[in-house]
Amino acid sequence: MTNRVDLDNGEYTAVVDSIEDGFATVFFEQDGEEVGNAVLEADRLPKDGHHADAVLTVTVVNSDLDTVQYEPEQTTKRADAAQNRFDQLSKRPPSEDDS
Length: 99
Prior knowledge:
By secondary structure, this protein is an alpha+beta fold. Helix content is about 20%, strand content about 40%.
């Protein structure tokens, strides 16, 4: 595995899916749409981004990761939004007996 990605040059939002045995599975988004994924060497990611659901801003140049920056605020926002969606889905709708 390397730092090569099958993406056009540009800036992307990347989300870490998992890190195992020194490799990170990362999903890439652009304009809110998933555009690809890759398995990368975990040491290519910032140390504070070495966890599932970490949000990164990456720049791709010639299919290589040029810059990778951890985004702690975006990571927190996404985690909060996911928790809110889960909380809403887990609420039991009122039954006829509850009235």
